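Aggregate trends can hide what the representation actually does to any particular protein. The sequence in question and its structure tokens are set out directly beneath this paragraph.
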Amino acid sequence: MADRSIMNSSINSRPSRDTMRAESPLSLPPAPDALQQSVRSVYPSKPDTDKEELQVQVNTLKYELENFKQERDLMVLRHEKELRDLQLKADSDFRKAQVCPASRPLSRVYFPDHIFVS
């Protein structure tokens, strides 16, 4: 029995884990809740990262779509300009062809047996 009383007194005389932790220079980090909060602030959770990646992809696709629309609009403008230029040239050629035939010099086409005058 004396042994038990010595053991009980030695257990009671030891400092508790909490006081040892506070006194130790190599103490463990605070409670797990505080540790989890600090880890969350340093490392965002996976769903947040996935959401950010999706948002980046959405923004990239929006940018590419806007560029394609601008390129299409530019191509339409170039096509319309080309059509206008061709129409102006055709109108000019038509007006030149409508000039009075008397004011044009005669053009002759020679064939071996005949001479055609237009």
